[in-house]
TrEMBL record:
Residue span(s) of domain SWIM-type: 409-450
Keywords tagged on the record: Metal-binding, Zinc, Zinc-finger
Name of the molecule in the record: SWIM-type domain-containing protein
PROSITE patterns: ZF_SWIM
Classification via InterPro entries: Znf_SWIM
Annotated GO MF terms: zinc ion binding
Source superkingdom: Bacteria
């Protein structure tokens, strides 16, 4: 997987500062986007965290996920978490080193007491000393929070800056897009007291040198989750169950835990999300369908990327976004004068550049802004490039419900069933059966069919 080197430049390392006035959690920001344009070190909030101990534990969990590789563990550089200020909340997001775990902490308005919350997106420095300091925070003493440097520090650069150069894998960017697409199909499967959840997590195996491999299931039963060793009706999959362990230190501050998952065939492995409700906050961990699978390869965005007007629609929709904490797709459709389904497809396209996330608790999209172009989506999706190459070469031949794609011994048959769902005879489809998105042959067939239908309708 191609990686670029990206530099994060901070005026100081993030730290917990002690003084006579109390403690301050200073989260240093790197380059980011704001309503006024790009900023070297934006400032988004200064005030107090209303639940300091819970906040420290949740923030540490997000940092720990970014610092951990759950599948085939090995030491590696990790990216600094992304923070988005949405005007009424702060969101901190990260992916694990293997890209199979997505973590997000939403610090809502009740969790913050201070100045107005800004708008924008940046990276924040979460270093090893800071994580150790967060682990020591306890008691009822208030904790001041500053997201971004003091104004005077931003203008009197003293040379004591911190610069990190880390590999920026395209997997993170693709992971943001895929997690958003997956989340739309999730539904609430269980809501249980945090104390019951803590007992369940204590029963999970520890992470080993070989990585997270244990797939388990839990069956919602009243106010508890009953663990089972094999699939059962109504069971929720826990793929790579060891990957839930970062939630353990947080649960003693929690009230309830909610479990979200898609509707799947009985016995099939599937992604899952666990949301921990904290005072004024929510911490969510989403697990990929298998510990060996990163979110970046799920292929859920590919159908919308092949839709004819989606790219043009995305440009129009992007102009209407301004770091909204909740995107109302119906209102957005009215503003853009587009059908709701075209708006959703456009949001998927914007998601490929990290511009869109999805909040399970509120069942709504939200806006973030990363320094990447939605127009580069094709470069980040080789199956999409392959499909367009097949179409350009005239390698798709339609014959009713069948399509022959390719030529000679490399040709494959794409077949439509009674519902219009496409399948293929290629090795990719034989291995995943559509479980990781469509193959390039199915994508190419869809493109040609849509073009043919448009031409016939004229």
């Amino acid at each position: 997987m191609t990686s670029l080197m990206r530099s994060y430049t901070y005026l100081h390392p993030s730290a917990v500062h002690e003084s006579a006035a109390g403690r301050t959690l200073a989260l240093e920001t790197s380059g980011g986007a704001t309503p006024e344009g790009e900023a070297a070190n934006p400032r988004f909030f200064t005030g107090f965290l209303t639940a300091p101990t819970a906040s420290a534990a949740a923030l540490m969990a997000v940092g720990d996920v970014a610092a951990t590789r759950y599948y085939r563990p090995r030491p590696s550089s990790f990216l600094d978490p992304v923070v988005t200020a949405n005007g009424d909340r702060l969101r901190m997001e990260s992916f694990s080193g293997c890209c199979g775990v997505y973590a997000r902490l939403d610090v809502l308005a009740p969790g913050l007491d201070g100045d107005d919350i800004g708008h924008g997106t940046t990276n924040v420095d979460v270093n090893a000393p800071l994580r150790r300091a967060l682990a020591r925070i306890g008691g009822l003493d208030p904790l001041h929070l500053a997201v971004g440097p003091e104004g005077i520090e931003a203008t009197t650069f003293d040379g004591q800056y911190v610069e990190k150069k880390v590999p920026l894998p395209q997997r993170w960017l693709r992971g943001f897009a895929e997690a958003q697409v997956l989340g739309v199909d999730f539904a609430l499967r269980a809501e249980v007291p945090a104390t019951r959840t803590a007992a369940l997590l204590r029963s999970l195996p520890r992470l080993t040198q070989s990585g997270a491999r244990t797939t388990r299931w839990v069956v919602p039963a009243g106010a508890t989750l009953r663990p089972v060793s094999r699939p059962a009706p109504g069971a929720v999959c826990l793929p790579g169950a060891e990957r839930l362990l970062p939630l353990q230190p947080v649960l003693r501050h929690a009230t309830v835990v909610r479990v979200y998952a898609p509707a799947v065939e009985h016995g099939a492995t599937a992604p899952v999300a666990w949301e921990v409700a904290l005072p004024g906050m929510r911490l969510t961990l989403m697990l990929s369908p298998d510990a060996a699978r990163g979110f970046s390869g799920e292929g859920g965005v590919l159908h919308d990327l092949t839709a004819g007007p989606a790219a043009a629609d995305a440009e129009q929709i992007a102009e209407l976004l301004s770091w909204e904490p909740k995107i109302d797709t119906t209102e957005l459709a009215n503003e853009a004068d587009l059908p709701t389904e075209r708006v959703r497809a456009a949001l998927t396209v914007l998601g490929t550049s990290g511009q869109i996330g999805y909040d399970l608790a509120e069942e709504a999209y939200f806006h973030r802004h990363l320094p990447h172009s939605a127009g580069a989506a094709e470069k980040r999706n080789p199956r999409l490039r392959g499909a367009r190459a097949l179409v350009a070469a005239g390698a798709v031949h339609l014959d009713g419900t069948l399509a022959r794609v390719g030529g000679g011994e490399h040709a494959h048959l794409v077949r439509a069933d009674d519902t219009g769902k496409l399948s293929c005879t290629c090795p990719w489809w034989a291995e995943y059966k559509g479980g990781r998105g469509p193959c390039k042959h199915v994508l190419a067939t869809r493109m040609v069919r849509e073009t043919t239908q448009e031409e016939e309708a004229r």
